[in-house]
Amino acid sequence: MKIFVGICGASGTIYGGRLLRALEGLGHEVTTCFSDGAIEVIRAEEDDGGASPSRQEVVAHFAERYGLSHSLENLAAPQEMGNELASGSSLAEAAIVCPCSMSSLACIASGVTRNLIHRVADVMLKESRTLALVPRETPLSDIHLRNMLRVRRAGALLVPAMPAYYHRPETIDDLADFVAGKVLDAAGIRHELFRRWQGEG
Q: Tens of pLDDT along 91-130?
């Protein structure tokens, strides 16, 4: 399956990392794009007190952290609007924005394409293909909620980054894998990232 994953500037880039790791492990063809905001968030969330790394260094470290083997050339910059995935003739079957910032949510809801992530999301909606958004914000304003309703009515799937605890997570990775698994469920991709609810009767 050919899948696009956009990572935006919302806290929780670990969700995108664990999702990419799962998709790669399942053998899917993945193209990834980091927004400029995502680069800043990764720097903040993984800052070791050293010098501020370049964009390429941030992406390389991110790929190493999550054990991603695809080349850095596939980790596109958001300015690359000529990417084949930005066209309706693209054969991409699904796109996932994880995490999805409220700024990107607003752009997608309004049909505004400021970068490759927004453009791919727009293509998925107009072509009636799978688009899953993973909003990560709290609390939510009336504007946020209205934008979520707009994208849902347009055909997007909303999978908020809300980890559960019935599978008895022991690590932060377990919590992130739960969210990644829910995203894969929404996209119709089989996985074994977490133990499913075995409710009574």
A: 679 999 999 999 999 999 999 998 999 999 999 999 999 9
Hey, what amino acid is at 108?
A: I
> pLDDT tens digit string along 5-25?
999 999 999 999 999 999 999
Task: Flag whether pLDDT at 163 surpasses 80.
Answer: yes
CATH of the domain at 179: 3.40.50.1950
Residue 193 lies in a domain: no
pTM score, whole prediction: 0.90
Number of domains in the chain: 1
User: Is 199 within a domain?
Assistant: no
Rounded Cα gap, residues 105 and 19, in angstroms: 19
Within a domain: 201: no
